[in-house]
Amino acid sequence: MLLMCDRENNVIVFLPQLADIEVLPAFVYLCSLQMKFLIMLTHTEKEELRSLLLTKKKIVLSSHSNPDGDAIGSLLAMYYYLTNKGHEVYMVVPNKFPEFYDWMPGSDLIINYEKNAKKAQQLLKSADIFFSLDYNALNRIGPVAEFVPPSPATRILIDHHIDPERDKFDYCYSNTAFSSTGELIYSFISTLGDIQFIDKSVAEALYTCIVTDTGSFSFSCNRPETYEITAALLKLGIDAEKMHRLIYDTFSEQRLRLLGFAISNRMIVWDDLHTSLIYLTKADLIKFNFEVGDTEGVVNYPLMMKKVNLSILITEKDNKLRLSFRSKGNFSVNDLARKHFNGGGHRNASGGNVNKKVNELIDELKVVLVDYSKELNYELVY
């Protein structure tokens, strides 16, 4: 056994007897210094999964509420991979996903639970295998969680968020070092010896996962393996330039105007806290004919300012306030969101929800952040 520490002070435990040089990440066990394990597959589990997927099964794939590119891409990648293996596969999400992912082949097959709950429930109840993709706990799938199939159905988690709800799953494939769940799915498929089932459709979906969850390779992408996997996907014939246009160059006029309004009229900068905050009320969203996904990426823009290390977006929806946190450098928005705002996620990208008025939340944020002023007071080397 070999013990090492990575840049984020995670203890990495290598088990050489399980190692396969081509898919080494599949056999890495991560645990934080607080001993919160992030679990990968053992040799026995790998063989069990291979056997499980050898014969035709009825499989339901799920992802989290308000699905993003990594969620939709993960669903579609697993859909095509498992369909290529001969399985009967269905996809369920709790609510609507952004229309700018409608171009993805197979997206029309994804069942929106809000619109078709009865069909989703029937599929869930009769599933042989249930996959949880891009979320670490069942509460992330809202009302769908109530109908997650019990034993003897097999539950499998594939995710890259911290603290996976390990006891709710039969198999857990989780590693926060990966850029995206899509990248982790590539490793999962490789681990099972099924690389031959990754065709162009799978590759396009996985590429979407990686590109969207790294902001076009601008964050969470320091692992060389991320680029090696991306290169392997490109070799399968995907058109990266075309996909970039489909993902990023499909704004509606109203979405672009909403972005301009948010930065021009709703952005606050707290210089002493190295923090920027943007808030959008329900009235603001109505004014710009808000569609699901229109605020995606807005929270990233304030981080373009040199001395801003933390960016916060508040959006008012359904009498609740949704918070999105982004940071650059070592400040953990995951810790902030978990401790104060009923949320969590990654070190540099997290979310939360509260039942408050906008002005009350802004006041609370400023008070809370004073306690983090020393942690936020750093300047990155450019």
Per-chain topology:
Layout: E1 2-5, E2 11-14, E3 28-31, E4 37-38, H1 43-52, E5 58-63, H2 69-84, E6 88-93, E7 110-112, H3 117-125, E8 129-133, E9 154-159, E10 171-174, H4 181-191, H5 200-213, H6 224-234, H7 240-248, H8 253-265, E11 267-270, E12 275-280, H9 282-287, E13 310-317, E14 320-327, H10 333-340, E15 344-345, E16 349-354, H11 358-370, H12 373-376
Parallel strand pairs: 5-6, 5-8, 6-7, 8-9, 9-10, 12-13
Antiparallel strand pairs: 1-2, 2-3, 3-4, 11-12, 13-14, 14-16, 15-16
Question: Could you write a compact summary of the structure shown?
Answer:
The chain has 382 residues and is of the alpha/beta class.
Characterization of this structure:
This protein is of the alpha/beta class and 382 residues long. It has two domains: 2-247, inorganic pyrophosphatase (n-terminal core); 253-376, Diaminopimelate Epimerase, Chain A, domain 1 (Roll). The protein has helices spanning 43-52, 69-84, 117-125, 181-191, 200-213, 224-234, 240-248, 253-265, 282-287, 333-340, 358-370, 373-376; strands at residues 2-5, 11-14, 28-31, 37-38, 58-63, 88-93, 110-112, 129-133, 154-159, 171-174, 267-270, 275-280, 310-317, 320-327, 344-345, 349-354. Strands 7-6-5-8-9-10 form a six-stranded parallel sheet, sandwiched between helices. The protein has a six-stranded mixed sheet with strand order 11-12-13-14-16-15.
